[in-house]
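Quick one, probably user error.
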């Protein structure tokens, strides 16, 4: 049985998906789970050669799985699809555009060694973002505002590189764009979240699926929903059979 499942949502990432899969495979071979991991790419309605690129790697990468949505359902749904299909108790997610460095995966996994089961997530925080100045400025402003409103400890919710317990993720309420609020939702369930500094790289192929303004407008309604979820929650409680 796999000890770690790496879940990568992809949409039109031909030119990125193949090299990324090879990098993930190489990074995982340096971990204690070297012979007990699986890699799950979730194709979210790609119309390019993303799937063909991944299929060609199956003989080269044992444990490579490819799931495919019939149409694009968004990044959060793709992440959930991968987590629900995963066989391992620990999940690692990273973006399919290659901007997250797979070499950082072992650092996140190492934090779980010997940790309490209440450690639900280890989240990456990008030290230096390789994005244009508009995205960096918008992200800084959004993160500060969100942290002030939600009173969480996240400085970089946009980093796709995260490691978390599968059972903890499945306890969280699902909604579109929830992947941007995983840290807050984990803390809502009384799970501990720790942070690790990670790298960030420029795209080598394709283009971003998100713009500054479309994220901003959607983020306002999402933020209101998360505030409501926090207010309507009575707190985590243990359960025992009597």
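Nope, works fine. Designed sequence:
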């Amino acid at each position: 049985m796999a000890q770690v499942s790496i879940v990568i949502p992809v949409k039109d990432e031909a030119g990125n998906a193949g090299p990324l899969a090879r990098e993930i495979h190489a990074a995982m071979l340096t971990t204690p789970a070297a012979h007990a991991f699986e890699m799950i790419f979730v194709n979210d309605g790609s119309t390019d050669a993303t799937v063909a690129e991944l299929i060609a790697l199956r003989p080269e990468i044992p444990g490579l799985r490819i799931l495919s949505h019939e149409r694009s359902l968004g990044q959060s749904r793709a992440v959930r699809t991968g987590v629900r299909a995963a066989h391992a108790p620990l999940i690692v997610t990273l973006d399919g555009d290659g901007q997250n460095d797979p070499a950082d995966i072992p650092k996140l996994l190492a934090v779980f060694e010997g940790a309490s089961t209440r450690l639900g997530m280890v989240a990456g925080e990008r030290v230096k973002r390789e994005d244009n100045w508009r995205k960096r400025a918008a992200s800084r402003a959004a993160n500060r505002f969100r942290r002030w409103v939600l009173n969480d400890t996240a400085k970089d919710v946009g980093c796709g590189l995260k490691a978390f317990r599968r059972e903890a993720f499945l306890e969280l309420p699902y909604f579109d764009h929830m992947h941007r609020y995983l840290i807050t939702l984990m803390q809502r369930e009384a799970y501990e979240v720790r942070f690790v500094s990670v790298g960030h790289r420029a795209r080598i192929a394709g283009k971003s699926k998100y713009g500054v303004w479309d994220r901003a407008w959607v983020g306002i309604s999402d933020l209101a929903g998360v505030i409501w979820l926090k207010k309507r929650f009575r707190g985590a409680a243990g359960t025992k059979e009597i």
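The domain at 4-231 is CATH 3.90.550.10 (Spore Coat Polysaccharide Biosynthesis Protein SpsA; Chain A).
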